[in-house]
Amino acid sequence: SADGxxxxxxxxxxxxxxxxxxxxxxGNKVWMCSHEGDWVGIVYPSAKDESxxxxxxINPEQAYQGKCKSGWVRExxxxxxxx
Length: 83
Fold this sequence. Notes:
By secondary structure, the chain is mainly β. 0% of the residues lie in helices and 35% in strands. It is built from no helices and 5 strands. Strand 3 and strand 4 (39-44) form a beta hairpin.
């Protein structure tokens, strides 16, 4: 990760000006749901095997309100995987 400590800081919005509210360790799988500049809005489970129910677009676009966690990370701090 870019911060050099094995993960990324989660922010409340898409910039360094937004509050850091958590830390997501390396190897966690996330869903990329939003994109703004160099930032990606993500959703991720708080427990192993938890379903976040984000497999399809929602119209109109809206903030995530499901049971999983969500936040913003720098796009350069995550890498896409398939499967």
